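Entry: Myo-inositol 2-dehydrogenase/D-chiro-inositol 1-dehydrogenase
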Amino acid sequence: MRVGVLGVGRIGALHAASLAADPRVGAVAVLDPDARRAGEVVRPLGARVLLDRDDLAAWRPDAVVLATPTDTHAALILEWARAGLPVFCEKPCFTDLDTARAVVAEVGDAGSVVHVGFQRRFDPGYRRAYNAVRTGELGELRRAHLVTADPAPPPAEYVARSGGIHRDCQIHDYDVLRWVTGREVVEVYATGANRGDPHFAAVGDVDEAAVLLTLDDGTLVTAQASRYNGAGYDVRMEVAGTEGTLAVGWDERVPVRSAEPSAPPPGDAWSGFLPRFATAYQAEMTAFVTLVAEGGTSPCEVSDALRALEIAEAVTRSRRDRRPVSLPALTAPAVGA
């Protein structure tokens, strides 16, 4: 199997290494505007650097991995899907709903294989929560809470192209909420604040966010996000039902201290998303290689990326308009619905 990787920043380099380590992948080629960086990435992997997309097409890959900037994803998904190749695309796949719906419709009509990089679905803790909710272990779902807090803010140039905290950061929470609970979000109410660097406000973004989401069964969910959590990288989820509560992310490296005298002291906090989700990133790329090798249905389809973006758009509108937003007024029917 031959796999091309477009974009070898932090996450693209990680995906290239995962592919090179998979015995089912015979060759990896990378493409990045920064040839020096691309060379540094491939040197220990035995991969090759290509100059442009024409070179990549001539190399005849069996699949491609997209780890380029968010605003390039939609066009690249269509380009490679039209070429008949399975596509792995990092989140977010889209920057606007019209483009997202057009891509999802074309991909669905053509039966193209697109696997979206929502890696939390492959994290052992989130998978445990999924099983607990879906098997009824927790009883009837009553509430949930999600946290995503970065230890330091991203640079201004990244923020300007990211789509904002709801589309870039919290979109993981929206996806994993749908996946774990099996429910859809029907209404959101959001607020936010700017407590740090001015480059967030300059592009209409916030660095602190709080969201109330209502699911289609009436369950209330809260989701918080921060770009300034100096104690470390903090990603958690709690799901509570009539028979119990389960927490994801409460390990010895969670950057939260207990005030109770009997609580054990915390260990070294996670420094960022790459070490925290290393196992999940490896598992999602293994799943993609299996999908390419054996066929079947993607465990995280492009329609899931559309649903997550619809929630993020509703949350962004709610925060800006300072009012609740109902998703039926914003969304289109899901593919296959």
